[in-house]
Amino acid sequence: DEGPVESWHKSVCRYCGTGCGVMLGMSKGKKLMRVRGDQEAHNKGVICIKGSTLDKMLANEPQRLKKPMIRKNGTLEEASWEEAMTLMTEKFKGAIAEHGADSVAFYGSGQLLTEESYTANKLFKGGFKTNNVDGNPRYCMASAAVGYTQTFGKDEPPGAYEDIDHAECFFLIGSNAYECHPPLFERMMVRKKVNPNVRMIVVDPRKTKTAEHADLHLPVLPGTDLLLLNAMLYTMMKTDLFDEEFIREHVNFSDGKNKVSFEDFKKFLEDYKPEKVAPELGISARDIRKAAYMFGNAKATMSLWTMGINQRIQGTYLNNTLNSMHLVTGHINRPGATPLSLTGQSNACGGVRDTGSLSHIIPHGRLIAKKEHRNEMEEIWGIPKDSMSPKPGYHALALFQAMVDEKVKCALIMCTNPAQSSPNVEHYKKGMEKTFLVVADVFETETTKLADIVLPAALYIEKQGVYGQTERRYQLIEKLLDPPGEAKSDLQILVDFAERMGYGDFIKAKTPDEVWEEYRKVSSHSKYNFEGITYERLKKERGLQWPCPSTDHPGTVRRYTKGDPFVPEGKEHYFYGKPDGKAVVFLRTYTPSKEKVTDEYPLYLTTGRVISQWHTGTMTMKVDELMSSSGPAQLVMHPEDASRMRLKEGETVKVEARRGNMNAVVKISEHETPGVLFAAFYDPSFLINGVVSDDHDPFSKEPAYKVTAVRVTKA
Ligand code: MGD
Ligand code: SF4
Q: Which part of the chain is the 4Fe-4S Mo/W bis-MGD-type domain (predicted)?
């Protein structure tokens, strides 16, 4: 018996990008006994079923990976750290010597600690000189990141959760916040309850629990939302809902190549008359107009979105256009008026986007392809000028394709499970099998099963480091437990690997404290400046929002407006990511998805999360309460579809798509829309990604997990 709770410790939930503050009750025997929401954190004590069962997840010690494993004669066998790290070093050194630095890669995660992602990125890009560093945020938020960068010149949102308490209209598009960001959804409902004039519009092909609470639900057909946004803009233009003064002072227009005029923008919108686009959207022109009035007429409108518009072949365009709707109506930079992309993972913002741990970027919004940006980082990292590779590395899908093509010989994968989470997964698994894969995880996964070396990693409060979420808030997780067996933190693994590869002096920050100190100083050379966010402050405070340039700075709730330390004195708004301080409104033309339904593939398949499971289920499927809530994953369809195909609940069907086929068990639910099927991706025994299309956005390279055309027949 580990005894009752002896002490409570402030921490952050392990799972999602809401970044809820939690209080962890530890026993004398150093066991996590209880979890509750932190009343003083931004979530005001509210947490969801996943967060409240963190103790049960951590209690799964018997199933944890505890010793390194090496594949010998086709089977993974236990080995010592010395053996595993020696073999890994030998393989990486061999590949670099024989095939060059671009034959190795790092594939990371928006759930690694910031200190870990920063170190891996620095080692591969600044040390080995390959930009083959990417990770699962590519599957998640790349479109939001590229969208912000194109519109404002800098990634990360202008607003914050606090805006929920001031908004008069919530525009939720491609977000099932009820299930995926429950404390934020609850905050919106509280706002609505206290102020009955507050309205909520939900754009979603599915009748989700979020949509059930909407004042206006627009069930658009999968893949068509850009038509809706442009038609709403058309309506706003025709009804004088544009804020011409804000536009004049703070906005430029662009067709993507050249600067164009406000008049050109208006002409562009003429193609998107509601009556014209309504049939393709599958909703009425009246509802399009209604949505436009609600958005435009409210005193303050806040848009919130996630994967429904990020995971799309026009994900970047959708993000641009949504940002544009705020700019042209002046619904920005005021309390309650802002676009706010909700984060999927706990540390995709702070850990990956801000540290520049994707194949085309380097820390703090710098681009690999820009010589002056590389030169800045070379100087900061103390490496010779022009020594970094100018060539962007492989983005996630290109990386796995390079494995199929045997161009990438060795890869280190940390804290992610791409053999389950990648689209068209059976194809990319062939590449993973061909490559010398080193996988660090806490449990056995579909990816560790393909590894040549498996490294047991420390989990959550078994290590220390910073998570950064949606609203530019950095929060600290302190170490409260020792990892089981021989498991080590990903940072320890990276530091050891760096030393063995001959980069011990370059990766000189070796502990979380040292890395944070280095990284904090690196940030001071940028507009992401968080030099004032020290561990000392984070131990006391409930997170801090950057920019935060000095230790006496309170952090910044709203960017690009008065109160942001980078907005020049005397200016009300200033989009300093752009040379002239003006944000860009793009003219973005709608293109139909290649996965549009046909006679051959007459149904849409859309995929995503459910409230009680986290991503590939490795952590949450081990918790009884969560399993009994979700059950095994199934193919969910509307009763009309089921009766048309004469299918019953529990029946096995064959799902066929252009890229593959699989069997599935049918579940019938009124929450789906006729013609649109839903499947979650947590359950490895129902690997839905076997049929999901790997079409992707040409700018963000994010896969379009949300739109696949399929046919369903009795198995
Ligand atoms: P996770 O289950 O989050 O899935 O896909 P993945 O990242 O592949 O994987 C995290 C892994 O890290 C788990 O295996 C866990 O056991 C391990 N882990 C936990 N803590 C640690 C640690 O501290 N160190 C190490 N080394 N390992 C640790 C997520 C991806 O899936 C994402 S982000 C999105 S948004 C996509 N969404 C999506 C979708 O909507 N539909 C479909 N069909 N597929 C999708 N795939 C994508
Ligand atoms: Fe954790 Fe996200 Fe649930 Fe909050 S909403 S408790 S961060 S899983």
A: 6-62
